[in-house]
Amino acid sequence: MRDAGERSLARPGGFVGARIALGVSGGIAAYKAADLASRLIRAGSTVDVMMTDGATRFIQPLTFEALTGRAVFSDVFDGWKDGSAGHVSLARDADVVVIAPATANTIARLASGYTEDMIGAVALATEAPLLIAPAMEHHMWHHAATRANVQTLVDRGAIVIPPETGRLASGAFGDGRLASPDAIIGSLRAVLGQYGALAGRRVIVSAGGTREALDPVRYIGNRSSGRMGIAIAEAAVETGADVTIVATPGVLGPLHGMKVVRVESAIEMQRAIEEAVRDADVLVMAAAVSDFRSRTLASHKIKKKADQDLLTIQLVKNPDIVASITGERLLKIGFAAETRDLLDNARRKLLDKGLAMIVANDAVDTIGHERSTATFLFADRDPIALPSLSKDEVARRLVAEVISLIAERDRDA
Ligand code: CTP
Question: How distant, in Å, are the alpha carbons of 11, 271, 319, 321, 386 from that of 324?
Fold first, then answer.
């Protein structure tokens, strides 16, 4: 029998080429599963949808067939055609089984091991990880029966993506809204990556632009969106890393499947990174750190005077975070976004800051844009000039280099 771990090892990690069995059970949130399926397809996965009878009353199987381009299974006997062994084939082929939404009834049936429907049968027959995203009415979620059933599933290794608090289908406010597609996709990313080349490695990524306060309402900032940092953090999760992202308030992306530490100023970022890098293997400084901060912080809003045409703010230098952080095993990776003398400036930063690698970018073409034309420079290797790529692709290539740098470091140790 093929082991689920072995199967995942053979895959590059991430959503491209992943086989995902998506179980949809009968709650009003069933319609949200269509968006989830669509996003997984767009990310490059093959999605096999299984529906309970209840789910088919809320949303038509045709919706999922059209989205996934594949047959939808509800009856457990459905799949026994064209040489396919029904639930056994689905269970064997899946890299992960995710049930979203999982109603109280489906959770109870899973906890008891019933197999009359496709979801129950596949959940028992598979060796792939099982993710459960519950959605139900507040009191049903908190009922002792549901609590015990959820605990049973967790004890058996299932991963539960907790429901959110908010307005429920009944109109009442409470716990039980299906987790957002971003949260479900974040958990899936971590599960699909768990046997990747960075499994067991700790990676710290800084993202966004720091904010240096002038008074309670104003700050000096920069245009960094944090897109690159998020892409790197996600690519590291996709290859199994335990990721901490140290993010500024401007970083708006859904940050799931990783630990998130929020900071504002360069000084706060330095402290957070110092704390996070203990036992870390890699620090990727993708943040745009303000080189200076205001010498004074006004405790009240700075007011202009009637005859004032000029305001002078004195700035003092911030610490260079990546240069200041040291660790014997720590691989440091930096970024250099320049408007001129790109490679010379980047190489100088690589050496001055003790980096293993630096990503050199044209500042104007990169900041705030979806694509980037980067060059990777290394302390001990020839440079790699990349073509214009999406930030997600640059991030994947960067992580591939991280994997090889770690292997080299471990060989030399
Ligand atoms: N960096 C840092 N701490 C700072 C400034 C920069 O850790 N106070 C990091 C950035 O996150 C990046 C690298 O150093 O990975 C290069 O940042 P950059 O702003 O390009 O370089 P600076 O050293 O600030 O040089 P300059 O602004 O003069 O170009």
Answer: 38, 11, 7, 5, 29
